[in-house]
Design a protein that fits this description.
The chain is 24% helix and 23% strand. By secondary structure, it is of the alpha+beta class.
Length: 62
Amino acid sequence: MKVKVEGCIGCGACLGVAPEVFEMNDQGMSTPKEEVVKPELEESARDAMEVCPVGAISEVEE
């Protein structure tokens, strides 16, 4: 599974749900820690997609 973040407002909700998947960059915006989400972290990544208030996280078709 791959995820992308576009349109992040820097609220940090994704880090609260999936700190092992996301991190904040120097501009205070969320980015995935790895290009490919490990299978054991996919559920956390999907939870982060659901809690993002602006829908900035999406799954990338492989």
